[in-house]
Design a protein that fits this description.
The chain is α/β, with parallel strands linked by helices and 696 residues long. 29% of the residues lie in helices and 17% in strands. It has 19 helices and 29 strands. The strands form 7 sheets. It has an 11-stranded mixed β-sheet with strand order 1-2-5-6-8-7-13-14-25-26-27, with helices on both faces. The protein is globular, with a radius of gyration of 25 Å.
């Protein structure tokens, strides 16, 4: 059975040393060697530990086993008051994704139940000790989890640092990088990167604690994972003026957490080494667990991939041995001569930061989606509203639909011009089928707030977040909806919270139902134009807009990556069709930047997967899962770290879509997903010459 205890911050090293033998039955007094390295890092403000027996509960499946991960989300005994253990179980269940089915290969060809291409025997439960820690407090807090399996390889110790994916919580990588690390007998270090699902509901006074449980602000005082920073009077005024809105950590912390992603990943590694050193066992390295004795791999997906890259760049002391990143979200330094060519032609745009290409995409996507009536999700498109969006994009802005082109094309040709505008902005010509399913104005809105360090009370660009009723109007949250946010929220507002258009005529309403001045649905053109103008400020803009644009630009500059990994081997995989993080703005130009760092050929390798994109949906029409190649990339890097093979050359991997109709698609097979090749054909190789990335 699990056991746990809370340890006061001021006496952590002493208390941990005294209690280690009680927590882990594998520890014996004769095995433990006193070491100065056993002291916890000074940045840790709170630590708990819990041992899992691998039967009633465990590190990988939270006691559910693989069968339970394939079933429905586990329910709390009392949904209004779930325990920390129940919330953890829900978060771990969500991280595995196995309930989506195996048609797209998850659970058969890759996933937490597949190791090096083979099914993992048994139910997948992994016994061991889990440490949960916090650095800082409130809006400044960052959460960490370190898992040490009982089978940890002390002769060849390894740590897998797996920062949270997307805007997710600290457990969001358990089912991917965490599973891979545990299968390889490594310790795994997770961090939420200062983001995660923490919220502040001014209406009910409910906030989230570090362990995911929720309650009144006064009761959780000192253990609150996020507070909106409003005084009691300001909170009351805000709720009176904007009832039922919530603040959430990523957008409203005022901390620009993306700027410290690298630091947070490095801290998770230092914490992992510290807990390994203080919980000493026979067979440990004589000099303790250090960067010299321990293999450390930083790895992640999307935002987590960007954080892993940031850790590699920020690490100048040899803490990280290698980096594996899948579809990394990277804001790049100026390219200064780095260029990208595909098929012998220069791509029209490269190296834009997310806030810019996302703000532009949000404006164009409802119109561009009209070009793909058979695309997944097209049935959700409001076609008349999309056509109105097309007309609204016509003007003098060369990034949108130039007036002269619109006059030649006529109204029916505007969707094609919108799609061409996306291609001019660096999106792949063949990714048009993803525009409708990837339309998400929440992303640029929340990043604008985060980068500009906006408060929830600022209501930047007229946006808020709330639960809504059947009419789309903001409504109070139910207790269970807030109480379960740790297990159900993506890191935005607690589910079912949605983006609110505060300026819609007739009153605030869900952004997806907002209307324009004429009373017709318009996909909130006002709000999206506002974010776009902050991302691409215009000369002569009003002073308030200039101020916010300046703040956003300053925050953006704090997040930029320059391509210098200090000689660490790195392997990046990304889907060519990625519409959330286009390859021309992420992996391709980053490969060019790394080539300028001067660490020699073969240090950084990049595999671009055709027909893959940013979402590992198992639904037909999305076809190729990038997760299959992420797991393969981890295997390839492991071989490199063990000295058994070199990294494969940069290449395009040409996959075969499974096709079919939703609900009637054939299962994905190995024939659909050929491996990353150790010796790819010359026509498939990606080369970098003179700072130019040349993609077949």
């Amino acid at each position: 059975m699990p056991s746990a205890g809370r340890l006061p911050a001021l006496s952590l090293p002493l208390v941990l040393a005294l209690t280690a033998a009680l927590v882990s039955p594998l520890a014996h007094a004769a095995d433990r060697t006193p070491s100065a390295r056993s002291a916890l890092p000074s940045f840790i403000s709170e630590l708990t530990e819990r041992r899992y027996d691998g039967r009633s509960d465990d590190l990988l499946t939270a006691g559910l086993g693989f069968a339970g991960l394939r079933g429905p989300m586990p329910r709390a005994a009392d949904p209004d008051r779930p325990t920390a253990a129940e919330l953890r179980r829900q978060a771990v269940w969500a991280s595995a994704g196995l309930s989506a089915g195996s048609g797209g290969g998850l659970g058969r060809l890759y996933g937490p139940d597949v190791d090096r291409g083979r099914p993992v025997p048994g139910d997948g439960k992994v016994a061991g000790v889990e440490y949960r820690a916090v650095a800082g407090s409130g809006a400044h807090s960052v959460s960490f989890v370190v898992q040490v399996p009982d089978g940890f390889d002390r002769a060849r110790p390894c740590v897998i640092a797996a920062p949270a994916t997307g805007l997710g919580g600290v457990y969001s990588m358990v089912g991917t990088a965490g599973a891979w690390g545990l299968h390889h007998r490594c310790a795994v270090a997770y961090t939420d990167k200062g983001m995660g699902p923490a919220f502040d509901d001014p209406h009910s006074g409910t906030v989230m604690g570090y362990d995911g449980t929720t309650g009144p602000r006064a009761r959780l005082h000192g253990r609150t994972a996020f507070d909106a920073g409003l005084s009691d009077a300001e909170r009351a005024r805000f709720d009176a003026e904007h009832p039922y809105r919530v603040a959430y950590k990523m957008a409203h912390s005022g901390m620009n957490p993306q700027a410290t992603w690298g630091r947070d990943v490095l801290r998770s590694i230092r914490l992992a080494l510290a807990v390994l050193n203080r919980d000493w066992h026979a067979g440990a390295p004589g000099g303790g667990y250090t960067p010299a004795s321990t293999t450390v791999l930083a790895t992640g997906v999307s935002n987590g991939g960007g954080a892993a890259v940031a850790a590699g760049e920020d690490d100048r002391g040899g803490l990280v041995d290698a980096v594996v990143a899948s579809e990394p979200q990277l804001n790049l330094a100026p390219l200064n001569g780095v260029r990208v060519r595909q098929g012998g032609r220069a791509v029209p745009a490269a190296g834009l930061p997310l806030i810019r290409y996302n703000a532009l995409a949000s404006l164009l996507q409802p119109c561009a989606a009209l070009t793909e009536p058979t695309a997944p999700g097209y049935a959700t498109l409001d076609v008349p509203a999309a056509r109105r969006r097309c007309a609204a994009l016509v003007g003098d802005d060369p990034r949108l639909i130039p007036r002269r082109d619109a006059e030649r094309a006529g109204p029916d040709g505007l969707p094609r011009l919108a799609q061409e505008a996306l291609v001019r902005a660096g999106f792949q010509p063949r990714s048009g089928y993803l525009q409708v399913s990837h339309y998400d104005p929440q992303t640029p809105a929340s990043y604008a707030m985060s980068l500009a360090r906006a408060s929830v009370a600022d209501g930047l660009c007229g946006y808020g977040w709330a639960r809504t009723d059947s009419s789309g109007s903001p409504a109070p949250y139910r207790t269970a909806e807030l109480a379960g946010a740790f297990g159900t929220s993506s890191g935005r507002a607690p589910a079912p919270g949605v983006l609110i258009d505060e300026n819609s005529p007739g009153g605030p309403v869900a952004d997806a139902r907002s209307v324009g001045p004429g009373g017709e649905h318009d996909y909130n053109l006002r709000g999206e134009r506002c974010v776009y103008r902050l991302a691409f400020p215009r000369p002569g803009a009003p002073s308030a807009g200039r101020d916010w644009a300046g703040r956003l630009a300053d925050g953006l500059d704090e997040t930029r990556r320059d391509g210098d990994l200090h000689g660490k081997p790195a392997l990046i995989v990304q889907g060519r069709d990625d519409t959330r993080v286009p390859v021309n703005h992420g992996s391709r130009p980053y490969l060019g930047l790394t080539s300028r760092a001067g660490h020699g050929p073969g240090t950084v390798s990049y595999a671009e997967i055709t027909h893959a994109h940013h979402s590992d949906s198992q639904v037909a029409g999305f076809d190729v899962p990038l997760g299959y190649y992420y797991q393969q990339a981890l295997d390839l890097m492991w071989e490199r770290l063990q000295g058994r093979a070199e990294l494969p050359p940069s290449q395009v991997v040409r996959t075969v879509p499974r096709g079919g109709e939703p609900g009637h698609a054939p299962e994905l097979t190995p024939a659909n997903v050929p491996p990353i090749a150790s010796d790819p054909a010359a026509t498939d190789r990606i080369r970098v010459t003179g700072g130019t990335v040349r993609v077949p």
